[in-house]
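From the shared-data thread, chain only:
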Amino acid sequence: MLKLLKFSKPYLLLIVFSVGLLFAQANLELALPDYLSNIVDTGIQQGGVDSSVPEAIRETEMGRILIFMSSENQSILLEDYTLINDTSSDYDTYLENYPILENESVYVLNDLKKAEIEELESIIIKPIVAVFTIEQLVATGNVTLINETLGVDLSLYPPGTDVFDILSVYPVEIIDIILDGITLNFEAIGETMLDQVAVVAVKREYEIIGMNTDRIQNRFIYKSGALMILMTLLAVICTISVSFLASRTAAGMARDIRSDLFRKVESFSSIEFDSFSTASLITRSTNDVTQVQGAIYMIVRLVAYAPILGIGGIIRALQKSRSMWWLIGVAVLVLIVLIGIVFVLTLPKFKIMQKLTDRLNLVARESLSGMLVIRAFNMEKYEENRFDKANIDLTSVSLFVTRVFVIMMPFMMLIMNGLVVGIIWVGSHKVSEAAMQVGDMMAFMQYAMQIVFAFLMLTMMFIMIPRAFVAGNRIQEVLATEPVIKDPQEPEEFDKPFKGKVEFRNVSFRYPGAKKNVLQDISFTAESGQTTAFIGATGSGKSTVINLVPRFYEVTEGSILIDGVDIRDVTQHDLREVVGYVPQKSFLFSGTIESNLRFADEDASDEALHSSIDVAQAAEFVYSEDVGIESEIAQGGMNVSGGQKQRLSIARALVKKPPIYIFDDSFSQLDFKTDANLRKALRKQMGDSTLLIVTQRVSTVKNAEQIIVLDDGKIVGKGTHEELLEINDIYREIATSQLELEDQS
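Structure, as C-alpha cells:
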C-alpha cells in the first residue's frame, strides 16, 4: 500500500492545500465553543462586560482605586485615561453616552491595543475588587465587619466620615495588607472568581454612570453570534473545498493506478497470466482500486483533520479546566482499547474478503461463460450451489466485520454519553463552588465531544484503511511483477527489404514450474512465400511452437530467427508488427464488424476491408444485412456463430497484410468447402508472405510446401504431403483416416 504513494506526486499541491484548509477548518470549529462560552458567561451572566478595565469611570471612583495602587501604577493608569468634564471639547457627545457628566467628571479609557489592555487589567483588577468590596461593606452598615476587614475603628472618627478618606492616609504597607486580605479570599474560591467580581464592579459602575447596559449586552451577544455564524460559514466552505480536493485527488490517483495496472497487465506474457487468474486481475483492477480510492479520500479528508481537532480540543479543554482532564483521558483510553480490539479482529478478515471476492468473480465468470455447457448437461443446480457456496462464504465474512462495527458503535455512544454525564456531574459541583463558570463547563463539554469525534473519525479510517492496505498490496503484487519477456536495452531492427523467413534452431521449451520440456530440439526453416504446416496428435506441441514466434512464451533453449535476426534482439512491438496472428480460440471485441477489422490497421481503406472479407469467405453473412460491415458485434462475438467468428478473425489478420501469417487451428469450424475456398483465395492473397498453419486437417495442409509432423514435442516428420505419405507412419495414419472421411462426405 505504501508503495502506491508514488502516485500521489502529481497531487502533492492539492494535498498540501487540503491540509491547510483542514487546519483552518479545525481551528474555526475549535473556536466556536469559546464563543458560546463567552455568550453564556460574558454576554448573559456579566451583561456583556468582557473586561475588568472599565470603559469609563467616575472621578471619585478613580480616586478610590488609586488608593490601592503604587505611585508607578497610578501614573500608568492615569496615562491610559482622559478626564472629561464640562470644559472638554467633546462634552456634549460624551454627555449622551455618560449622563453622570452633568454632576461629576468622568475618566474615559483611551484607544489602547490589546496588549496594553491586558497590562492595564493586571494593574487594576485587585484595586477595583477591593474598592467594590469595601463599598458593599459600607452599604451594609455593619461596622463590626468593616472594622475586622479594614483593621480600623470607625468609632474614633466623626460620624459620616468616608472610609476611603481614612484609608487614603494609611501607610502603603497597611494598604497592601488590606488589599491582599480582600482579594486573597476571592482567589481562594477559584481562579475565575476575582475576574467575575471585577466585572460585576465594572458593570455596577456603568449603571451609576448611566450607560446603556442593555445595549452593551446586546452588542456583545450579537457580535459574538455574528462571528460564530461567519466562522461556521467559513468552516462549511473549507469542508466543501477539502471534500472536492480530496475527491479529485483520490479519483486522480485511482485513475493513474488503474492505468498503470492495465499497462502492466498488457505487458504480461502468457507466463505472467498463468500466475494471476483473469478473475483476480479484474478484481484487482476494479474492486481493489476502489478500496484504495476510498482510503485515499479518507486519508486526505481526515488524517490531518482528526489529529488537529483532537489535539486542539485537548489544549482548549485544559484551558477551560485543568482539573477535569482525567474525564477526557479515561474516555480516550477506553476508545483506544476499543479501536485496538476492532483492528485485531477485522484485519485478518479483510484479507480473506478480497480472496473470497476473487473466488466469487471466478465462479460467476465461469458460469456465465459456460452457460451453454451447463444447460446441456443439466448442471444448473450444481452451479447454483457452487455460486451459493462462494457467495455465502463472502457474506459470512462480511457480516462478521459488519457486526463488529455495529457492536462498536453503541459502545462509542455509551462512552460519549458517559463522558457528557461525567462532565456535567463534576462541572456542576465546580460551578456551585464558583470555581468554574457555566459557559466554561459547556465549552469543556463541547471540546470533549470534539475530541471523541476525532477518535470516531480515526475509527472510520481504521475501518477502511486495513482493507485498503490489503487491496493495495494486491495491486502492488501486479505492479511489482516483472515480465519474463523483456525488450533488449539496445534493440536491433529487421533488415530492409523484409522477407519474413522464419528459422527455428534447436529450440526447446519448458513451461514455468514444469519438470520436463514440452518441445525438444525443434529445428526447421519456413521460407517466405511458402506455407509451413504443423500437424500431429492433440498435445503434441503444435500451438506451443507457433506461440514462440510472437514471443508469447520465451524459448528455454535454442533460438528463433526471422530474416537472420534473433527475435529476442528486437522489440516485441517490432516483432509483432510483422506478424498477423489468428488464435486458436477466435475472439471478437464489442463494436461493429468494421471496428474489429480495423483493430489490425486503423487506417485501412474500405477496399482493403472488403477484400479481406471476400478472401476470408465472410462476404455471404456480412453483406446479408443492409448495414454490412456496420453490423453490431456483441461482447466476445456472442451474436455470431463459431465459423463466422473464425472467418472474421482471419479477415482481421488479412487487413494487416503482414509478411508473416500465423493460423493456430483457425479453420477448425469451417466446412470442407469453405475451407477449400478460403485456402485457394488465401494462396492468391498472401503473395510473398510466410504462412504458418496449425491444423488437425490433412486437407488443409496437403498443398503446403512444408509439413512438419510433431509427436510428444519432437519433430518426427518433415516434407510435402506426398513425401510424408511414403515415409512417415504417423502422418500416413492421420491422412488415411481423414481423407477417407472427406471422400465419404
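DSSP finds 27 helices and 15 strands in the chain.
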